[in-house]
Every structure is written in C-alpha cells, then in structure tokens.
Amino acid sequence: MQRYNPSEIEPKWQQIWEDQKANEVKTDPSKHKMYVSGMFPYPSGAGMHTGHAFSWAIVDAIARFHRQHGENVLNPIGWDTFGLPAENYAIKTGTSPAVATATNIANFKNQFKRMGVSIDWSREINTSDPSYYKWTQWVFTKLFERGLAYQKESLQWWCPVDKTVLANEQVEAGHCWRCGSLVEKKLLKQWFFKITDYADSLLDEIEDLDWPQKIKTAQTNWIGKSVGAEIEFLVEETSAARVSAGASSPTETRSEAVSDAKNSISVFTTRPDTIFGATFIVLAPEHPLSLQLGVGDFKADLEEYVKASVKKSEIERTNDTKEKTGVFTGSYAINPASGEKTPIWVADYVLGGYGTGAIMAVPAHDERDFAFANKFRLPVIAVVEPETGVPQENPEFRQSIVAIVRDPKTNKYLSINWGAKNGGNLFIGGGREENEDIVETAIREIAEETGYTHVQLVSQTGKMHHNYFAHSKNVARRIEANALLFDLIDDEKVETALEADEKNKFTVEWLNETEALSKVSDELHATSFELLVGGKNYHGEGVMVNSGQFDGMQSSQAREAIVAWLEEKKLGREKTTYKMRDWLISRQRYWGAPIPIIHCPDHGAVAVPEDQLPVVLPEIEDYAPKGDGKSALARATDWVNTTCPECGKPALRETDTMDGYACSSWYLLRYADPQNVEQAWDPEVVNYWNPVDVYVGGDHAVAHLLYVRFWTHVFYDMGLVNFKEPVKKLIYHGYINAEDGTKMSKSKGNVVDPLDVIDSGYGADALRTYLLFMGPIELDASWSTKGVAGVYRFLNRVWTVTQQYLESEKNSEINDQKLAVALNKTIKKVTDDIRRQSFNTAIAGLMEFVNDLYKLKLDGFSEKGWHDALTALAQMIAVFAPHMADELWTQLGGEGLVQNATWPSWDDSLIVEDMITIAIQVNGKLRGEVTVEKNADAEEIKSLALAHENVAKFVGDQKPTKIIYVPGRLVSIVL
After folding, report:
1. Would you call 496 exposed, middle or buried from its count of C-beta atoms within 10 A (0-12, 13-18, 19+)?
2. Nearest to 337 by CA among 234, 227, 257, 241
3. How far apart are CA 209 and CA 467, in angstroms?
4. Position 36 pLDDT exceeds 60
5. How buried is residue 890: exposed, middle or buried, by Cβ count under 10 Å (0-12/13-18/19+)?
6. Residue 381 pLDDT > 70
7. Across the strands, what pairs with 283?
C-alpha cells in the first residue's frame, strides 16, 4: 500500500498549480466574485513565522472554499517593504535597503509557496517599487490639491533611537512602537493628512461594518466625537480692559480691544450647563498661554513643570490612578456666567491636542477635577442636583431621605429586601415632614424599619430628585431627597414600628460592597451609594441650582439656553470636537516614498506634476539620520536641488519621506489592477473586485484600518470608486504564542519557522490544518508540537482509508445507508462551520467522519457508496490540506484539480432524524435558533449559540454571566 509522504506529494502539486496557473484570475463581470486578502506582510529578514502562517491559512481556507463553489476568487499578495527595519539593517551592514528587501521577499515567497497558499502571483506588488509608489505620490498630490495634505510646525513625538517622528498611535505607553525606546517631544515642521475632515464620515459608517465589535469600538473611541460648546474666559487684566473700554461689566459683549486670543482662554466642554460650577481653569502644558500667564513667584515653578510635563506620554498624563499634579500661574480669569474671579492653573492631565487644550474645571461634577480640587483645596460648587427615575403621571410630592448604615466591624451595609416584584433590595428610606431635621428623620426611619438606634452620621449629600412608583403604597411620587451615611455604633435594637402595609413585606439583609452594587438597582438608592460610599461625584443629568436665572431648569434644557445666552454675549458658541488628530505623515528617514513636493522661494510648496512622477528615491551611501530633524536625503544635494514646476527657478525637493502606512492605505485597490501603467487603477475593474469581501489580520486595530478607510472615503468623493468602505468583513484573529504561552520572539529563541515544521516530515498540510484546529481563530493559542503530530496522524488516517478502498474488492454494500447518513451530516456541518469561519469545529467534524469510516470499513467496501464518501472527503479536506486532497482526488478518478470541482451537497432527508433545533435566548428573550446533531456536545452547542449572527448583536463585547443549556431545547445566555 502506498504510504503518505508529504515530502513527495507537496512539491509535486505545487509545481502543477504553478504550471497550470491555477490561481490566476481575470476580471469577469459574468461571474460572482470573492475577494479575500490577508493584511500586507512586511518581509523581514527573520522570515515568516507561525503568526503569518496562521493568518494565511485562514485566508487560503476561505479562498479555496469559495473556489469550490464556482466563484471568481481573488487571493493576491504584496509586500509592505518601506520602513525602519530595512533601513536600520542598511545602516548596520551597509547593505542597500533595496537589496536586503529583495532577499527577504525571495525568502517569504519560498515560504508561501511551500505552504501551498493559493495566491495569484501575477498580481504581486511591492511598495518600494517606483511603479507602485509613483501612484502613492500621485495620491499625495491629489490630497494636496484638495487641501487634505498640508505642512505645519508643531510639537511631535520624536524617537531618539530611530531618529524620526512618530504619530500618536505609534507611541505606546510613552515608548516607540518599533524599538521600545522612551520618546520625547520635538518642535518640527511636518506634513499631515487632514483625516479630521472625514471624522463624521468615518464615524457614520462604523456601525454597519461587518467587523468585530472590539475593532469598531476602538475606532469609535479613537475618533472620539464630542458635541458641546466653546466658551471664552477672559483673563483678569482683559476683563478690566473691557470695563475701561466702556462695557458695564467684565462679561458684557466683547469689544475690539479684547478680541485677541492672548487676552482670553477658549475652553471646550460637553457640559456648558455646569459653567456656574467652574471654579478654576486648567491649561495643558503645551497651551500657548501656559507660560505667558506665569507671574511673580509662580513663574519659575511653572516653567519647570511645563518642561517636565511635555516629555510625558499621553497615557502617563491621563492615568486616572496617578496623583494629580499642577502649578498655579498666578493669573485669574473671569467666569463669563457668574462673573467670579477664577484661578488659572497648568496641569498635565489636560492634553494640548484635545479640544482647545484648556478646560473649565467643575470639580462637583467631574472626577478628575474633583481630585485636583481636593489636592489643592480649590472650591467645589454643585450646580446640578441629581435626578433619577422615570417621571410619573400625577405624582404625589414629598420630601424624603435615604439612609445607608455601615457596620464598621464587617464593612457591610444594611438593606431591606422587598422582593423582586416590589423593588428588590433598598437601603432605608422614608418621608420627611416640612422643616423636620434631615438627620433626625434618617435616624427615626432606621429605628422604625430595622430597630437599630445607635448610629453616627458620617456624611450626607445635597438634594436629589427622584421619580418612582411606590409599590407598597400604590402611589406615584416625585421626591426631593437627601442621602446620609451612618456608621453603626453597636447592635442594640428596639422594636420596629412598621405601618400595617409594611409588616411582613420585607426582610433585613446585610450586604458587602459588591453585593450592594449589584443588588440595589433602584436609581436613587444606587446613586446615593455611589456618592457616599463610592466617593464619586455626580456627572449625570438633573435640576439646576446655584446657576442664577437657570435655577430649577432641567440640565439638558439649560445646556442650550446657557449656550444661547453666551452667544448673545459673544463669549460662547456651539462646537463639535474630535479626539482624533490629523495624520502625521512625514518621516525623517531614507527608506520611504519621497514626498512629491518642491519648495520654491516664490511659490512655496508646489506639488510635483503627474508627468514627473515618480520622484525616485536616489541611491545614497550613508543612510543614517543625524538627529537634526532631517532625513539622509537632505545630504543628496544633486537630488534635492531642482527647479520649481511653476516658475522654473531654483528650488528644493522635500526631503521627508512618507510614513509606510501611506503605501498600505490603497494596496487593496491596486491588487485589482496591478499592471496598470496609465493610472493607479481602472475604476471599472476596481468596482468589480472591490470592496474586499473578507480581510484577515491580527494587528492594526486603529492605524492601518482607519487610514485605509479614510483614503477610500476620499477616493469615493473624487469619483474614483463607487464605494466608501474598503472592507466588507474583517476577520481579526488571535496570536500564536510559544509552547509555554509566552510571546514568540527571536531574542527568546522560541520562534517557530513554518519550514522547520514542514521539513520535519509533517508537511505543509499538517501545519495548515493544525493552525486552524488549535481553537477559535479570534482567540490566542499556544503552539504545540504534539498537536501538529496529532493532526498529521489524522491526515495519515485519511490517506490510509482511501488506499485501503482503492485496493479493496468493493463487494460489500451492507453499510451504505449508514455511510450516506454520516457523509451528509458531515457535509452539512463542515459547510456551515466554514461559512462562519469556525474552522476548528469543521476539522473536528471531518475527524469524526473519518472515525466513522474506520468503523464501517470493518464490514468491507462498496463501489459507489465509498467512492462518493471518499471523493467528498477529499473535496472538503482540500480547504485545509490541499496537496493531499488533489493527490487523493486524482487517485479516485477525479478530473482536473479538486478546487475546480463542485463542492459536495447534502440531502436533508438523510440527516433530519439526527438533527434537533435549539432555541437561543439572551436575557430571557428569543434571539435565534440553531440546528445541531442530537448527540452534539453541550459546549459545542453553547459556542454555536454565541456565534449566531443575531445573538452576537445582542451580546456584543459583554461577557455572559452564565450560559445555561437545557438539553435538546434551549440555550439561555445571561448578561
């Protein structure tokens, strides 16, 4: 019997696929297309590791599956070759980046081909090839023409090791994303892409993307849209100038004399309704006025503080766990609403790049401001009284208290449990007569309801408002309440004094803090607990107080009224801001696409005309930047010196190069039309292939994915494509770690080279199948040599049973019915699993089917039944182990390549008796159903339920509290 030998089979079929150009595709509008791609690989000198192999095993499984369904499948490849690794290698060894890159690409191509990935190599692209970056430069010029590319001077993150600037998203916890060194701030003139012009467009499309929720959330948070108001706080001397200029008060309508920004501080706030509670101003250290406002003895400390603060990373500065720091400038502003004198501070928890770089601090209603005010003993003025509950019709008004009693010995809190129908757990509550002392009322209610009398007041809140329906009284109420926290002095009790409708209606329970937070769900009581025990300040909606003419208004209504009032005074206006900054595109390095700009003394920055593109990167000998903020290109004087395209006079080329992300922001379009020398792409061709149907990767949750979306939105507006979003479905997979669970790294010597696995005898098919069998693809997994061996044994079993069939007499049909049932069940399961990218369960289904074959073969083989089963098995396993599949397909008499054969179908009538339908509930509501085998494993059923498309919408990123499976009937997911 012929033995399974991957080292013979795999090279044979790789050569056949290459000779037949099996994976090359043409644009054919008559066919349904499927465009699947992995994220652009960077061909490092270390070669491809198992992380790359994992990603492309996913890509290839999807590609092969859809080919077998008769679709026109595009599975291209390209190389993201610009960047620091090749340049640093050149600096170290003197080897040209172009030469090193070519060597690395050859290594990667060999690895990809030996894995048997079904790539259309005729579409191969390389970002450092002038024929490619010519069009990246062309895009730059188009953005420049539209005002979306511009140059300005500003403080930027600077890596002292790599000697280049970094975008915000390339700084991780204050360190360079590539070399890990501590970064610093440097004032440089840089090029930017105006991605902020597309903030709303990018934000609006996110919800409809078929992307993992965590990626959509990350992008939403990065854009960080905030709607509010921009308000002017005049500095004290400016206010005096206003009065001397004829204004009746410092806050009266602004005059010409004080319109200069130096005389006022603009703050952005999403809560203009809280302006009367703004008791101090905080400037970011980078704010242009932070040093100018320093006076007298405060000036020296202020200068030292600013110098130290700008060196810190944004993560360090915004860490809520660190103690707040800051310096008083010695200057004051005037609150435009209250007219109060307001001290101006500089503190690093305010960022120069967000909003205006200045905030009005409202410590009563913002936790960071509250922490700052507590440390520096600044005033705290509450201007919003909490309001909770749902307004009721014809409510009865009453004054009330909420009393929280803590036992210091056990750190537990006294509650009364009214039962689920009547409100559950509450703290002590009760009505207060007009003019009755609040503390006395609370102590009386504690004694009446629980019997405890010896308590001591710890703290209390101001007024709170609450709307509710009192179940015990059967009446709707609107109340004004104060919450009070007491410590229990001792356990002495008196007899309770309950009203008739309260007796035997509740039980007394002591709850720890965690239980209190989870069990007390009434909004008024829960808010009271957060304020008194949790130490939080109130930042929700409510009733305005201490706010002059706006007292008594709902805060949500007061917001608009206060902004309109400030607009009349020309001291405020509606404003929308974004956390996202414009994309810093220029790099002070050699190995990148040259920015196609010429600087002319007369005409300024001029774009290189299209007929002069590409601006080819010149060959130089010394690649090392000198730390002067310029790239090595600045020393290539023959290249730098040129003429202005506008006037023909002497001019200088831009010596910065583009961030590598520029070249990777449009390659998904170039894949569709890679050989076009007349234009970046033919819109008709791109509109057939794009957007990408499935995009696979495990990195770049924000940067690349946001940039590729931005460019596509721009291209849509330019009429170059007929779609806004570049990627329909995103598969964001986990990482492959070392066997001990740690991250693979070259320094640790624990990186697994795919070729080592292949050459050890296991072969590419075993490697590919194992990578997809390790677990759900979205989760991290640890490499296991034993796991590869196990998958190899499985493939050997497939091979062996096929050889036994081929050599058998084929004279027994005794088990053909059982064989047909097992086959049809398997086809349905594997098909469904692959469609939802549950490759591990699909492979498990194939393993189970092979186990069935080994049992059934004991009674002999039939001609047709077994032939149908084994050819279908070869077709299904081709998604994971294509080399062996093509070999077995040929041995079984199949024509052509297995990927060109029609995917096997199933007959429901043969499997219905073995299948059951399970309902899926989320928090008690039916959200879907799933059909499974009767004997399916409970954990598999739970996984199928969570993966259900409609169920996933309701679960989102939340981790279920519990998942209950009622055998044969129901999966209940509790959030």
Report:
1. middle
2. 234
3. 39
4. yes
5. middle
6. yes
7. 346, 358
Burial of 392 (0-12, 13-18, 19+ CB in 10 A): middle
Contact assessment for residue 149 and residue 140, using Cβ atoms and an 8 Å cutoff: yes
Cβ neighbours around 929 below 10 Å, total: 15
Contact between 863 and 871 (Cβ < 8 Å): no
Q: How far is CA 608 from CA 555, 639, 658, 677, in A?
A: 54, 14, 15, 18
Show the tokens assigned to 87. 């340049």
Count the alpha carbons within 13 Å of 583 in the hemisphere toward its beta carbon. Answer: 28
Query: Residue 47, exposed/middle/buried by CB under 10 A (0-12, 13-18, 19+)?
Result: middle
Q: Which of 635, 665, 629 is nearest to 154 (CA)?
A: 629
Residue 33 has a pLDDT of: 97
Distances in Å between the Cα of 499 and the Cα atoms of 431, 495, 496, 821 are: 13, 13, 10, 70
Closest CA to 709 of 684, 692, 696: 692
Q: Which of 226, 258, 246, 229 is nearest to 333 (CA)?
A: 258
Pairing relation of β-strands 396-407 and 412-417? antiparallel
Asked whether 344 and 280 are in contact (CB, 8 A), the reply is yes
What amino acid occupies position 818?
A: K
Residues 243, 250 contacting (CB under 8 angstroms): yes
> Do 156 and 171 contact (CB within 8 A), yes or no?
no
Report the alpha-carbon distance of residue 139 to residue 178 in Å, rounded: 26
Strand spans (E) along 817-943: 915-922, 925-933
Distance CA 49, CA 735 (A): 11
**940 Cβ contact partners less than 8 Å away, ≥ 6 residues apart:** 841, 932
- Looking at the DSSP bridge assignments, the partners of residue 265 are 233
Q: Which of 534, 408, 412 is nearest to 461 (CA)?
A: 534
Write out the two tokens for 125: 């692209």
How far is it, in rounded angstroms, from Cα 694 to Cα 59?
Answer: 8
| Identity at 202, one-letter amino acid code | L
DSSP 8-state assignment for residue 769: H
Helix (H/G/I), strand (E/B), else coil: 315:
helix
Task: Please state which of the ranges 218-227, 676-685, 741-750 shows the lowest mean pLDDT.
Answer: 741-750
pLDDT digits (tens, 9 = 90+) for 501-556: 667 778 899 999 999 999 998 899 999 999 999 888 899 999 999 999 999 999 99
The SS3 of residue 40 is coil
- pLDDT beyond 90 at 257: no
Buried b (16+ CB within 10 A) or exposed e, 624-655: ebeeebebbbbbbeebbebebbeeeeebbbbb
**Number of DSSP helices (H) and strands (E) in the chain, helices first:** 29, 40
Distances (CA, A) of 942 to 516, 936, 949, 961, 966: 31, 10, 14, 13, 11
CA atoms within 13 A on the CB side of 743: 4
Whether residue 155 contacts residue 183, with contact meaning beta carbons closer than 8 Å, is answered with no
Query: 382: closest CA among 400, 364, 394?
Result: 364
Q: How many CB atoms lie under 10 A from the CB of residue 942? A: 18
Identify whether the C-beta of residue 603 lies closer than 8 Å to the C-beta of residue 647.
yes
